[in-house]
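Schema walk-through. Below, the input block comes first and the output block second. Nothing else is stored per chain. Lengths vary across the set, and this one has 198 residues.
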Amino acid sequence: MRRIRGGWTSIALAAALLLAPAAVRAQTTGGARTDSVTVDTVPVDRLRAYTRDLADPIVAAQAVALGLYDHARTQPEEWGGGADGLGKRVLSRAGGHIVTQSVRHGMAAALNRSTDYRVCGCKEPERRAAHALFETFTDYDAQGRARLSTPFLAGTYAGALAPLAWHPDADAARALQSGTLALVFALAGNVIRELLEP
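--- output ---
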């Protein structure tokens, strides 16, 4: 296995910049938790949720920030410097996000699953943190039953693996590490969201 230049620190920083704020905002359409879960079955509602998650201005800013971070490190070297290299790096970051959301929302629609995050509404920090763990890795079917969120997991890893198609120095092991870190940052973002909720 070849050594990743920059190591875990670079990967963690990049993932934090890209994913932490998005994780806090991801899977949200509404406020407090309710007793029932509404699964969008109307195509226009699903499309609205998809475009909301796809075109999130925070995610666009993150793609630019991470593109600048990659550009400052000249990663990958093959893309060179200047505006052309920066553009490729920003588009690479944005491309991963597009794949993530497309797979996630597409699978959720096919499986008739929710993409919303339900806020706990409880007072105790321990319960809020436990709820964040549960909500990060589950979604709800049309009957309101919690299920393992295969759309979220598949989307996260698809977005991490997608750069293998265009990134000159990408490899599968690094992509899988990136996907796993994305899950960790999504969980951390949801815990923060729960603890900051009034």
